[in-house]
Amino acid sequence: MPDQYRVAIVGSGPAGLSAAARAAALGMSHILLEKTDHLSDTIYKYQKGKHVMATPSNLVLRSDIDFDAGKREFILDTWDTQIADNKVNVRLNSEVTAISGETGSFQIELKDGETIQAEAVVMAIGTQGNPNKLRCPGADLPLIQYQLDDPGEYFDEHITVVGSGDAGIENALGLAADPAQRNVVTILNRRADFARAKAANVALLEEAEKDGRISVRRETSPAEVRENELVLETRDGQETIKCDRIIARTGSQPPRGFVEGCGIEFTGEDRGAFPKLSPSFETTQSGIHVIGALAGYPLIKHCMNQGYDVIEFLNGNQELKPADEPILADKFAALPGNRSVDEWLEIFRNNITILRELSPLQMRELMLDSDVAAFSAGEIIFVRNDPGSSMFAIAEGSVLVEVNPDDPSVTVPIEQGSIFGEVGLISGRRRGSTIRAAEPVVTLELTRNAALKLLATVPSANRAVNQITIERQLLQMFGAGLTSQDVAELVQSAETVEVRAGQNVIEEGGDDKDIYVIQQGSMIVEKSLGGKPIFLSYLPAGSYFGEMAVIDHSKRTATVKAAIKSEVVKFPGEAFTRLLDRNPKLRERAKADMASRRKVNSFVEERKESFSSAVDMYSETAKFLIDNGIGEATDVLLIDETLCVGCDNCEKACADSHEGLSRLDREAGRTYAHIHVPTSCRHCEHPHCMADCPPNAIKRGPDGEVFIDDTCIGCGNCQRNCPYGVIRMDPKPPKKPSLFSWLLFGAGPGPGEASYSWRKTTAEKRGLEQAKLAIKCDMCAGIEGGPACVRACPTGAAIRVAPEKFLTFTKLAEDVD
């Protein structure tokens, strides 16, 4: 006869151990099943010497076993001792292969053929056994491993860590900790932000990067694995680095087949979806509860609290509230209606589209990192040009967007369940509009880190935000009185595609009929003449292309390729045609755009013989500018060498406008033909420098300028991340003494601009060598008349332009005529 227990706990990670310890303390008949020959395999597999964090710090720990931040080995020893002392009924080497039955009578089959019976089952198996494998050519080569046991085992190796969560960061730090090992350590993050990692780990990684111990590659992913080499897909194209070993820490997935085989439903079809759970952790299979990482709660303290709570629920304590209840109750206290925490959680989850597939447990975790607020009708939520990188969601009510800054009465509504502020989240720009409550409103404000983590870990939320963003981009771009219903078919059929630098999106002569919208990055349009690709135009983010072949059913007349790493949204041509059929005004606008582009093509075809050399020159010039960053610029300084007299007025004016520190180096930079690109900020659409600024000191102004505010801590991350060398770290400049002080006491460098060497020497004498700040062009924001460098140029050689205004074939046509 099989053994029978009140509860069987599957998995001895932090959640399972805490559940078993609570059952033992209550005298509840239980068994803890672990498939390995040791407890807590999750922590056991951490790298040796790893410091384990106990976050969140404001959350009370409920458990009959202890846990505090400390070394892996100490924590494991503590748990082994306390589990034995508490007389927990543990069975090692007991892998569960199937669970069947119903509440009160479950049969748990083990790999060795034995069966265990239990009235209830607590599943705490985690996800560590199902790592996400690399998906690129060469992913089966032996230099790839998915776990790191002991960083001290590796010497004199070029090691690349793939993955930007806590595990990846901790592995990279461990491999670079001892200089005597002489490892060259690189970590890849396919995004700009480390959204999945704890803030403390990110800070340690940034410190290691600053010290040169680790190379951090952002917006980079593996393209191909070769013997002793790794091909990287970067923002600017492919790059090959030496690589002896790859540590892939790319996350893991729930063992879905096994879980579903137990009768448990998931929240969605995505690979990363979690089981559906009640507030008491019960699944859709009555009597089976899920806790820990499998429930979507990876933090150890959360897991241990769940282990304690689930046994209390099974023991009849239905009044028990989660450990985070006081924190959330305080957070919701200012909201109207006198509702409970559970009621508010359900309102937020059910009413907000992007949250509908989150479990109650995931909702609680999200709320700990977010803010809630109530607004009266007419009350302003934020004002145009306010700084802010958070995203808002509407739980109750609706808001109005003031689309015309000169007439606040012109508004567009955003209804309950939708989001706003996502532009600041994605681009870092200041608020684009004033938003006020149309009626009493309850909002959820997700901090940048909370929002990015949500989008990175919950596919349904990412999909919903992407659809809302696409819809708004279509409505803004096409106008013509379109509504959400008009573009619904296009939005539903949209496919977001990442395109590497230089990759063709459409090819001249092709017969495909899709249209595209540029969501991030930029494109260049080329046409083949005499076997040579000739530059026609530049398309920034927010442009669309490909409609010509859709409207007149022709072949592609030009090639469109990515100037930099970009993201485009592809729409089926048939859906676009139906939209045009329903909206004559939009059809007329599209035809006008098409006519303008055909005019350029015809112009080239008709005159290609008469100005082929000019076409070649202009095309090569355009290629040079694209290669030098104009493809991602929003404002770039160019100098016409045929007009420049070398007076350096531009540099002097820049210094005079910025405390004696010029943001411009006229002589530096590259030149092609008569066009010179000096070392000065391009104010990129998606700035490299902004991607990793710990105090968020780098911001975008109302006119698109990227600037560094007074909260700069001098970490140097922006300087390292800028590919164009336009940021430097300078000692904080001392104030230049007055002319009177110089005449009487010889103080200071004398009349005129204080030289850089004087500022640096004086700063060092004052002991300010460490007080360095990041210095870069801010487009003279706030200074009347615009950029001083342009105003001070006596010959008009210096110009600042947006790339779409400079890189057009119209200019060539005017020159040739």
Mean pLDDT across all amino acids: 85
What number of structural domains do the residues give? 5
Kindly estimate the percentage of residues that lie in beta strands according to DSSP.
15-25%
Specify the helix fraction band. Answer: 25-40%
CATH homology group of the largest domain: FAD/NAD(P)-binding domain
Structural class: alpha+beta
Number of discrete helical segments: 25
Q: What separation lies between the terminal Cα atoms? A: 98 Å
Q: What fold name goes in the CATH topology slot of the largest domain? A: FAD/NAD(P)-binding domain
Main β-sheet, in a few words? 7 strands, mixed
Shape: globular
Q: What is the tally of beta strands?
A: 41
Could you name the ranges where pLDDT drops below 50 across 5 or more consecutive residues?
808-817
CA radius of gyration is 30 Å
Q: Do you know the CATH architecture of the largest domain?
A: 3-Layer(bba) Sandwich
Query: CATH class of the largest domain, anyone?
Result: Alpha Beta
Structure description:
The chain is of the alpha+beta class and 817 residues long. It has 5 domains: 3-129 and 253-323, FAD/NAD(P)-binding domain (3-Layer(bba) Sandwich), CATH 3.50.50; 144-248, FAD/NAD(P)-binding domain (3-Layer(bba) Sandwich); 327-464, Jelly Rolls (Sandwich), CATH 2.60.120; 489-610, Jelly Rolls (Sandwich), CATH 2.60.120.10; 623-816, no CATH class. Helix content is 31%, strand content 24%. It has 25 helices and 41 strands. Strands 1, 2, 5, 6, 7, 8 and 17 form a 7-stranded mixed β-sheet that branches. Strands 9-16-10-11-12 form a 5-stranded parallel β-sheet. Helix 4 (166-175) runs parallel beside helix 5 (199-210), helix 14 runs antiparallel to helix 16 and helix 16 (573-582) crosses helix 17 (584-607). The longest helix is centred in the last third of the chain and has 24 residues, at 584-607. It is globular, with a radius of gyration of 30 Å. It comes from Pontixanthobacter luteolus. Residues 635-667, 671-703, 704-732, 771-804 form the 4Fe-4S ferredoxin-type domain. One of its GO terms (molecular function) is 4 iron, 4 sulfur cluster binding.
